[in-house]
Every structure is written in C-alpha cells, then in structure tokens.
Amino acid sequence: MISKISLTKLAKFWIPPILWALVIFSFSAFTVGHATEIYWKDFLVKKTAHIIEYGILATLLYRAMINSGVNNKKAMWLAVFFSFLYGITDEFHQSFTPGREPTFRDIVIDTLGASIFIFGIIGNIKKMPKFLQNLYIKYQL
Asked: Domain range for residue 65?
C-alpha cells in the first residue's frame, strides 16, 4: 500500500517532469514561423530553445529519480536516456504538425541539451560556487 509520504513524494518530484514534458509536447503542436529572417539567427534561436527545454526535462527527471532512491550516476544516465527517448517521440509528434518536420538533428540537439545540463552542471556541482551548491541542496537535486 502506498503511504501518504510516498504520494507526497510522487507529486513533488514526478509531476514536474510530467508537466514539463506536456509543455514540450504543446510547443511541438504549434506551427512555427521564423524567429528572424536571417537563417543562422533563426536556427540559433530555435536550437537554443531545444537545448534549454531538454536540459530542464533531464534535470527534472534526475531530481525525481534521486529523490526516489536511484543512485546518482544511474540517475544521471537515465535522465539523459529518457530525455533522448522523449526527443524521439517529440519528433514523431511533429511529423503530424503542419509546417513542422521531424529531424534526426533535433534529437541530437535535444540529447545534447540534456547531457549539458546533467553532466556539465549537475555532474560538476561540487566544483561550482557555494551559492549554486546551496541551491542544489535547497531544491533537493
């Protein structure tokens, strides 16, 4: 039987990545225009958004797993792996959206974003300034 504490933990740590995945899903349902008329700027804006979206998703997944008892290294790898899988499903979803097209490049960029946030930031938190370490502890990452 699931205790009240378990349900609280479930809501606190697993609902945020689920909600964030829904945000990404909703972004993918919109047709997109150009952010700017200059191709490389448009590309840069959109791909930066991919990196940030999937970095946040991976961080939320990592946080949920750590607080569910998964060890640190395994949680890091699983967060990136599940972000990669979600990137695949997102590209598939875009194949049904007018004006959007699925690309392997976007899956790579999504996974890169997840990896940067997890291995670049979370993986090096002990080397960062004290105030960032305190945020890490405060938000139970």
From this structure: 4-138
Identity of the highest mean pLDDT range in 83-87, 92-96, 128-132:
83-87
At 32 the three-state DSSP class reads: coil
Q: Which amino acid is at 45?
A: V
**Distance between CA atoms of residues 134 and 107, nearest Å:** 32
Beta carbons within 10 angstroms of residue 53's beta carbon: 24
| SS3 (DSSP) at 54 | helix
Which among 58, 53, 61, 56 is positioned nearest to 26, based on CA atoms? 53
Count how many domains the chain has.
1
CA distance 29 to 47: 17
Write down the pTM of the prediction: 0.85
Mean residue pLDDT across the chain: 87
Residue-wise pLDDT for 57-83, tens only, equals 999 999 999 988 899 999 999 999 999
User: 114: part of which helix (H) or strand (E)?
Assistant: helix 104-115
Q: Hey, what amino acid is at 86?
A: Y
- State the residue for tokens 């940030």: 52
**Of residues 20, 48, 54, the one with CA closest to residue 35:** 48
